[in-house]
């Protein structure tokens, strides 16, 4: 079941500096929401607050209407699919054990886990034989898919993806983005997708959030965002737009 998220005046400082300032936001169930903004804007911090790896200094996060602070973090995280920035697979575990990490924590027995791993590999379109591989033997794109499979293995209602396309070539990232979009729909998820790439965000998401220096400076549909005059938004849009124009000119 897709999850509803409500952020109420969330503030957090790190190392004495404010990193998120007065974040007020409601994400209804079922949205595919892109979270973008320059490096250091606070994107990862917002994801980490969402799955309680970090507690805000003030403000509340409601998950399906319940205050997230009232549930132990580890328990909460087992219901949330999280693919961390840089994938973060456990290097000494096989791909299969990585994928089944949360179900294992939840006490799922061996046979069930083996079946689940094969199903998740199918979902992310990797060969089932990858279950016995070690993470070091994966390409960047394959590792991203394993990270996605691991995030989906607990059958979450909420999927948090932190730059799943980083360091992938354009074709691979497009394939992975297609896969994420399809899985988002098929699995009935609320998905919060952090991406540096505004072109991805604009073409995939139903809604775009832009963070700038810890403040939410835009919250709009893709079409409305393009018309947004905020300087931080314009700065993000300028380069993909320019690139697209030059490409179109070449084909004319
Ligand atoms: N443990 C920490 N101690 C102090 N400052 C931190 C810590 N973690 C993050 N920060 C700071 O918080 C700010 C936001 O970091 P965050 O990782 O959320 O940015 P981001 O938007 O995800 O950036 P990127 O696009 O580079 O991943 C940055 O200025 C960062 O230096
Ligand atoms: Mg980050």
UniProtKB/TrEMBL annotation:
<keyword id="KW-0547">Nucleotide-binding</keyword>
<protein>
    <submittedName>
        <fullName>Osmoprotectant transport system ATP-binding protein</fullName>
    </submittedName>
</protein>
<comment type="similarity">
    <text>Belongs to the ABC transporter superfamily.</text>
</comment>
<keyword id="KW-0813">Transport</keyword>
<keyword id="KW-0067">ATP-binding</keyword>
<dbReference type="GO" id="GO:0016887">
    <property type="term" value="F:ATP hydrolysis activity"/>
</dbReference>
<dbReference type="InterPro" id="IPR027417">
    <property type="entry name" value="P-loop_NTPase"/>
</dbReference>
<dbReference type="InterPro" id="IPR017871">
    <property type="entry name" value="ABC_transporter-like_CS"/>
</dbReference>
<feature type="domain" description="ABC transporter">
    <location>
        <begin position="5"/>
        <end position="238"/>
    </location>
</feature>
<dbReference type="Pfam" id="PF00005">
    <property type="entry name" value="ABC_tran"/>
</dbReference>
<dbReference type="InterPro" id="IPR003439">
    <property type="entry name" value="ABC_transporter-like_ATP-bd"/>
</dbReference>
<dbReference type="InterPro" id="IPR003593">
    <property type="entry name" value="AAA+_ATPase"/>
</dbReference>
<dbReference type="GO" id="GO:0005524">
    <property type="term" value="F:ATP binding"/>
</dbReference>
């Amino acid at each position: 079941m897709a999850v509803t998220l409500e952020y109420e005046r969330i503030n957090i400082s790190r190392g004495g500096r404010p990193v998120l300032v007065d974040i007020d936001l409601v994400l209804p169930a079922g949205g595919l929401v892109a979270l973008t903004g320059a490096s250091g804007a606070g994107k990862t911090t917002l994801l980490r607050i969402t799955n309680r790896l970090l507690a805000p200094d003030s403000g509340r996060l409601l998950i399906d209407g319940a205050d997230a602070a009232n549930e132990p973090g580890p328990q909460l995280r087992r219901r949330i699919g999280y693919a961390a920035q840089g994938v973060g697979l456990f290097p000494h575990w096989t791909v299969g054990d990585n994928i089944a990490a949360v179900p294992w924590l939840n006490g799922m027995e061996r046979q069930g886990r083996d079946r689940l791993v094969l199903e998740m590999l199918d979902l992310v379109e990797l060969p089932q034989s990858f279950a016995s591989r070690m993470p070091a033997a994966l390409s960047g794109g394959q590792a991203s898919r394993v990270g996605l499979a691991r995030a989906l293995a607990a059958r979450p209602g909420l999927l948090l993806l932190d730059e799943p396309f980083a360091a992938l070539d354009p074709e691979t990232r497009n394939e992975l983005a297609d896969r994420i979009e399809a899985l988002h729909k098929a699995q009935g998820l609320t998905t919060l997708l952090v991406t540096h790439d505004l072109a991805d965000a604009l073409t995939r998401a139903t809604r775009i959030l832009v963070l700038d220096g810890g403040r939410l400076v835009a919250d709009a549909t893709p079409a409305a965002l393009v018309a947004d005059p905020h300087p931080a938004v314009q700065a993000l849009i300028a380069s993909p737009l320019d690139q697209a124009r030059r490409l179109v000119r070449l084909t004319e």
